[in-house]
Amino acid sequence: MNAFIRGLLDIRRGPWEMVASVLIGVGVLMLMQPFWMTLYTYSFIVILVGTVMFLTVSHFPE
Amino acid sequence: MIQSQISKAAEATPEPVARRIRGLSDRSIAWIFVAPTIFLLLAVNIYPLLRTIWLSFTNYRVNRPNNDVDWVGLRNYERILSDPDIWNTMQATAHFLFWTILIQVLIGFTLAYLINKKFKGNNLWTTIIVLPMMLSPAVVGNFWTFLYQPQIGLFNYAVGFLTGTDPASFSMIGDVNLAPWAIVIADTWMWTPFVMLICLAGLRSIPESLYEAAECDRASHWRQFWTITVPMVLPFLMLAVLFRGIENFKMFDLVVQLTGGGPGSVTELTSINLKREAFEKWRTGYSSAYAVILFVTVFGLASIYVKALNKVKQR
Membrane-spanning regions, if any (chain A) (predicted)? Predict the structure, then answer.
């Protein structure tokens, strides 16, 4: 956990890619879940932030 | 012979042209070769993508080209993301995606595992299993509608024969509860061989020496399966899931032929709904926003999937 937070603070690719991946995954679940309309409404912005973050952080150093 | 032809061609080249070619650097020649591809990519992929993004912020209608095009900002996105009908199509797509991929991977891997065992007629069985994949989705959709006919359909007859129910008592494509499963079954029938072929390639790439070493260590077949077969085939399986996931996310032809999105809209997948918005209701700006949402979703998923695939390959 400490290594993960240190990676985030040191701007390392691995942990930031993990954050972006989780955002995309959560966004897709929000988009396709059948329970709550509000989650569906905010799903696209979550996916978009995750995708743009993923594209950006994949240029960070290892 | 070839040398003399080259010499003849060189002599036939007009001197100014020859001088110009001789003066080109390797980098320039490389650009000359790559330029047509880049041009095509820009014209066919990049420009339409940028144009779609721009249109998604407007109220443009392609059937009214003379109307003024107004900038509506994020209104198209707001309307799509608060529309219960589109939310339903997302759920229908999720159901279709989840079950087709799960069933295709399970059956495809099992078939590949069995075909990989040496037995008589192995190649013949592989060819027979692969046949559905070679058919057109429109044809498959069409003949599955006949198979699902309550009165004369072979599928209903088989279910009736196995379960004892009356074949005419249920309609796979007319019942709101059964129709989502009807499209899952047809797609699974068509595309399981594709998953099987990819898994078979993975199974055949495992060196025999690994199993021999495991035999020497007295590892059971069950243990060999979980510690050698599954990890070695996993990258191939993930590739199959990626391909099927992207393909099924934009599934159109098979489902249109089979159910047309009905009954009601229970099998109306996002691509069918998008086509209706774009080319039946002619709401071009609105459907562009819809397409951008789907594009970003698939792109995001494909990005994390490719990353996971690379990680598995490095192991």
Answer: 16-36, 42-60
